[in-house]
Amino acid sequence: MTTSGSLRRRAVAAAAAVGALALVVGCGGSDDSATGGGKKDGKVTITMGLYGVMGLKETGLLEQYEKENPGVDIKAEIAGDEQTYYTALQTRLAAGKGLKDIQGIEVGRAKEITDTQADKFADFSDVPGLDHFLPWKESQITTADGKVLGLGTDIGPMAVCYRKDYFAQAGLPTERDQVAKLWEGDWKKYVEVGRTFKKDFKGKNVAYMDAASGLFNAMIYGSPEQFYDEKGELIYDSNPVVKQAWGLAADAAEGGLTAKLRQFQPGWDPGLANGTFATAVCPAWMLSHISEKAGPANKGKWDVAKAPKGANWGGSFLGVVEQSPVKEEAKKLVAWLTAPEQQAHVFQEIGNIPSSRQALDSPEVKNATSAYFSGAPIGRIFGAAAQEIPDKQVLGRKDGTIKDTFSQGLTLIEQQGTARDKAWNTTAERIEKAVG
Amino acid sequence: MATSTTPALTGDEPTGPPPAGSTPRRRGALLHRLDLKGAPYAFVAPFFVVFAAFSFYPLVYTFWISLHDVELATLDVMQWVAFDNYVELWNDSRFWNALQNTITIGVISTVPQLLMALGLAHLLNYRMRGSLFFRVASLVPYATSVAAAALVFTMIFERDFGMINWALGSVGIDPVDWEADKWPAQVAISTIVIWRWTGYNALLYLAAMQAIPADRYEAASLDGASRWQQFTHVTVPGIRSTIVFTIVLSTIGATQLFGEPLIFGQGPNGVTGGADNQYQTLGLLLYEEGWKNYQMGRSATVAWAMFLLLLIVFLVQRVVQRVRSRTS
C-alpha cells in the first residue's frame, strides 16, 4: 500500500510540475496565424478590423467580393467607437498579437502610424493604378521615405444637418439654399442663427445644436494647420484658428445653445431619435449615423445645407499588416474596396464621400440625393465642400488625442459650467501630459 | 477578484520510520526520504511557478518600466529616468484627485454593501420556503459580467431618457445629471458595485452563520436575549473572521475599481473618469496614462503607487491590531 501510494503521489507531483511548466511555456508559443487569416485547403481567409460605419460590410461589398472570388472568406470585426478601436489597435501593434490582416486607420491617427508603426504595415506603393485618389489623400498615409501604408476610403467634407420642422417653428427659413445663406461664409453667423432660434423657438427642450465640440472641429479643420505646424511642433496654443474656434464654441456653450451631449456616445443617439437638437455640423460620414439612430420616424424631417466654410473632418484608410500570412490577397482586397466603383457604391448606399477623385466626378456621385434627408442633393453639396478642403493639411502625431481632449474641454464648459479660461488651462495641461 | 486555494499539503502523511542502516536498502531509503521531504514542494510548485510567471515577474518588470520613459508604440525604446515618474506623480494633482475618488467611492460602495450583505444573510438564515432559490438569486449579480451590468446601469442613469430621471421627474424632482456631476456620478458607480457584490458577501456571511453552534442561540434565548441582541451578541462575534475577510476583499476590490467607472463614463469620458475627472479612480488614471496618453512608464508608476498603497494599508492594519492586542 505504501509503495503504490507513494508511487502514485510521486507521479502526480511530477505531472503537476510538468503541467505547470507547460502552462508557462505554452503562453510563449504562438498559434499558426497571428491575424486569424490564412490559407487552408485552397480557401483564403482574410480578417478585417474596422470601426464606426465605414460602409464596407454594411453595403454588402464584402459579400460581393466573396461572391466574385470563390474561395475567399472575409471576416470583419467592427468596433463602434474609433477611440476604443485605436486603443486596442495600439496595444495589439505593440504586442504583435491580435491584429487583423486589414486594419482601418482614421486620419487623426495617420501621422502617428506613419511616424512610429511604418514597419508593421505593408507597402502599397507598388500597387498599380492608384492615381485616382485626391492628391492630398494618399500623401497623408505616406511615410517620409515614400512607403504607402494604406489606401483611402472616404473623406469628411462638412455640411450642416438641420431639422426643417424645428426651423419652421422658430420662424426661420426651411429651404436648404436659404438656410445656407443665413450663415454663408462665417461660422459666427451660424451661432447668431442659434441665438435667434433659442429666442423664437416655441416648443420646449430643443437645443440649437448637439454639442459645442462639433462646431469646434468644423472650424479648425477648415484650416491647413490645426495643432501642429509642418515641422511637427505643437502650435495649438498660438494658432489663431484654434483660439477662434475655442472662443466661438465656448460662446455657444455658455449661451445655452447646445444640448450638452457628447457626440458618438450613447446619450447622443436617443437625442437624435427624440429630436432634442435642431442642427448638427455633419461630415458626410455622419449622415449614415444620423439616419440610423434618428430612425424611420424622423425621415424627411432632416435636411442638409452647405456649411459656412469647407473643411475636412475625418475620413479613413485601410492598411494591411506586415505579419499577415495573406498579405497579397489582403492588398488586393483593399485595392478593390477603395477602387472608384466601390467608393461610389458606398456613397450611394450610405453617403460616405469618396476619397477617389474619379469617383467624385462620376455622375452617380454628382447627382446623388438622399431620400432620408428630404431629397437633399448630397452629391452636389458635399462634392462642392470637398473642393473647398485645403489642398494641404498638416497632420500631427497626436492629432486624434488632442482633438478628443479639446472636445472634453468644451464639455467642461457645457456640463460643468467651468469658466472658459480655466477649461482652456485644464485642456492645455492634459495635452502636455498626452504628448509626453 | 482572485481566489486561490491554499496549497496546504504538508504533514498529511504519518512520518515514516527512520531509515534502516543496512547498505543495500540505503538507496531506497534515500528515495523514500526524498519522497517524503520533496513531494510537498512538488505539490505546491505549480502554484509558485505560475505565481512567479504571472505575478512576480510582471510586478518586477512593471517596476523596471516605471523607472523609464516608454511609449506604448515603441516599447523597445526605453529611456532611464530613475524616480522622475514617481516625483512627477507625487506632484500631479490628478493623482491626489484619483486617490480621493478611489477612497470616497470605496467608502460609499463598501460600507452599505457589507451592511446590506449582513442583513441579507441574516434573513436568508431563517428557515423559509424556497431558501435555495433566494440564495441562488442573491448570487446572480455576482455572476453577471461587469460590462453588461455597468452598461445597463449606465442606461438607467442616463440624463435625458434614463429610468431614474424619469422616475424622479414623475414625482416632480428635477433631473439629475448623473454623469457630469461629481457626487451623483460617484453614487451611481457605487450602486453598480453594491448591486454586484452584496449577494456574494451575503453568501459568505451565511456560510459562516450556519457554522455557529445552535446551542449558543439557545443559551442566549434562555438568558432572555431578544432577536436583535442575539444578532449583535452571538451572530456578529461568531462570524467576525469572515467579516474581516470580506472587508479585506472589498478594500482590495475598491482600490482596483476600474471597469464600472470606465463603462459608466463611455468613450473618452470613461477613460478620464468624467470631463472633470470627477470619478477618475486610480485604476482609470493608470489606464489613461497607458492607453490614452500611451506613456507606459507613467502608467507603470501609477500601478506601483497602487501596490504601495495597499502595502501601507496592510501595515497600518497590522500595527493597529498589534497595539490593540497588547492593550487588551
From TrEMBL, chain A:
<keyword id="KW-0732">Signal</keyword>
<feature type="signal peptide">
    <location>
        <begin position="1"/>
        <end position="22"/>
    </location>
</feature>
<protein>
    <submittedName>
        <fullName>ABC transporter substrate-binding protein</fullName>
    </submittedName>
</protein>
<dbReference type="InterPro" id="IPR006059">
    <property type="entry name" value="SBP"/>
</dbReference>
<dbReference type="Pfam" id="PF13416">
    <property type="entry name" value="SBP_bac_8"/>
</dbReference>
<dbReference type="InterPro" id="IPR050490">
    <property type="entry name" value="Bact_solute-bd_prot1"/>
</dbReference>
UniProtKB/TrEMBL annotation, chain B:
<feature type="transmembrane region" description="Helical">
    <location>
        <begin position="136"/>
        <end position="157"/>
    </location>
</feature>
<feature type="transmembrane region" description="Helical">
    <location>
        <begin position="41"/>
        <end position="64"/>
    </location>
</feature>
<keyword id="KW-1003">Cell membrane</keyword>
<dbReference type="GO" id="GO:0005886">
    <property type="term" value="C:plasma membrane"/>
</dbReference>
<feature type="transmembrane region" description="Helical">
    <location>
        <begin position="103"/>
        <end position="124"/>
    </location>
</feature>
<comment type="similarity">
    <text>Belongs to the binding-protein-dependent transport system permease family.</text>
</comment>
<protein>
    <submittedName>
        <fullName>Sugar ABC transporter permease</fullName>
    </submittedName>
</protein>
<feature type="domain" description="ABC transmembrane type-1">
    <location>
        <begin position="99"/>
        <end position="317"/>
    </location>
</feature>
<keyword id="KW-1133">Transmembrane helix</keyword>
<keyword id="KW-0472">Membrane</keyword>
<keyword id="KW-0812">Transmembrane</keyword>
<dbReference type="InterPro" id="IPR035906">
    <property type="entry name" value="MetI-like_sf"/>
</dbReference>
<dbReference type="GO" id="GO:0055085">
    <property type="term" value="P:transmembrane transport"/>
</dbReference>
<feature type="region of interest" description="Disordered">
    <location>
        <begin position="1"/>
        <end position="25"/>
    </location>
</feature>
<dbReference type="InterPro" id="IPR051393">
    <property type="entry name" value="ABC_transporter_permease"/>
</dbReference>
<keyword id="KW-0813">Transport</keyword>
<dbReference type="Pfam" id="PF00528">
    <property type="entry name" value="BPD_transp_1"/>
</dbReference>
<feature type="transmembrane region" description="Helical">
    <location>
        <begin position="301"/>
        <end position="320"/>
    </location>
</feature>
<dbReference type="InterPro" id="IPR000515">
    <property type="entry name" value="MetI-like"/>
</dbReference>
